[in-house]
Design a protein that fits this description.
Helices cover 47% and strands 21% of the residues. It has four helices and five strands, in the order ααααβββββ. It has a five-stranded mixed beta barrel. The protein starts with a helix and ends with a strand.
Length: 175
Amino acid sequence: MISYFLSLNYFERILLVVGVLASVTMVINMFVEHLESVDRGVRRKSPSVSIITAMGTVCLFCFLTLFMTSNGVKWYMAFPVSVLASLVCFMISVVFRGDKSKSGATDSRIAIGHTGLVYRTVLPKEPTGCVSVDVFGQTIDAFALSADEDSLAIGTMVKIIDTDGDVLICRKISE
């Protein structure tokens, strides 16, 4: 491996190092996203999908350019081909892996009467807590308020009793 690295010119070494760093970043974000979804049981709303898409595009660009220049294609020909291939891959990834929850407006009133899981502490007076509710095969993640004067900890099962706009009003389920 070291002999291969030493056989590369300066431009190819930079491509290899950036490609490896981008792929490591992509794998770490995929692992973190998986652990978060397993830990909380709900899909995380974070920029990790964007990071994974961007790092995948950088990996493709670097490794495709490196492959083409190593096989005798001049860098000024390999660079635009790699840019176009990376942009096409990025667009396909955005279309197929984009945020599905924004595909249509979801009326939060359909969650009334269903049970959900608290994944950010719900307070009685401030809608800063978050609840995830599965309704007819669709997951609704929304801000929530506690109907009682008690705060609801992460992992608490709740029943949605009402809504206030997009904020869910919930009560702890008695065991």
